[in-house]
Amino acid sequence: MNNRVSLSPHFRLDEFQCPCCLTVRLQPELLHRLEALRGRWGPVRITSGYRCPSHNREVGGVENSRHMVGAAADVAVAQQRQRSFCLLATEEGFSSVIPYGSRGFVHLAVDL
Ligand SMILES: [Zn+2]
Ligand SMILES: [Zn+2]
């Protein structure tokens, strides 16, 4: 499977694929909001996009994680920049914005 295909000006499909099976699900609204956020923030690196149920269990995700429906992405953000990143993400309409502090990422999700 080859997911190295551009979805939008700044994101490729493989950035959202599950690392264990390379499957991808991605809600268009998540991509649109990430692209808008990227336009204001600058480059962003997705550390976790779609997760199949088994990968979600493996990484300790919650049982009904929005990662499993392609409606959530974790983005690498240094701890000291998470506050401003979260403010911007909230302005861009993500319904869930959760900073993980010293773990170095922010969880972003949209409603289905
Ligand atoms: Zn998988
Ligand atoms: Zn997450």
Could you please describe the fold and organization of this structure?
This protein has 112 residues and is an alpha+beta fold. It has one domain: Muramoyl-pentapeptide Carboxypeptidase, domain 2, CATH 3.30.1380.10. Helix content is 27%, strand content 20%. The chain contains three helices and six strands, in the order E-E-H-E-H-E-H-E-E. A four-stranded antiparallel beta sheet has the order 3-4-6-5, with helices on one face. The protein has a two-stranded antiparallel ribbon with strand order 1-2. The longest helix has 14 residues. It is globular. The structure holds zinc ion (2 copies). One zinc ion (ZN) binds next to strand 4.
Summarize the structure.
By secondary structure, the protein is α+β, with helices and mostly antiparallel strands. The chain has helices at residues 28-41, 53-58, 82-91; strands at residues 6-8, 11-12, 46-48, 72-76, 96-99, 105-109.
Number of helices: 3
Quaternary state of the chains? single chain
How would the global form be characterised?
globular
Numbering strands along the chain, what is their spatial order in the largest sheet?
3-4-6-5
Q: How many structural units, i.e. domains?
A: 1
Structural class: alpha+beta
End-to-end Cα distance, whole Å, is 27 Å
Give the second-level CATH assignment, the architecture: 2-Layer Sandwich
Identify low-pLDDT runs.
Answer: none
CATH class: Alpha Beta
Radius of gyration, in angstroms, nearest whole number: 13 Å
Q: How many DSSP-defined strands?
A: 6
Protein name: Peptidase M15
Domain Peptidase M15A C-terminal: 10-108
InterPro entries: Peptidase_M15A_C, Zn_M74/Hedgehog-like
Pfam family, one: Peptidase_M15_3
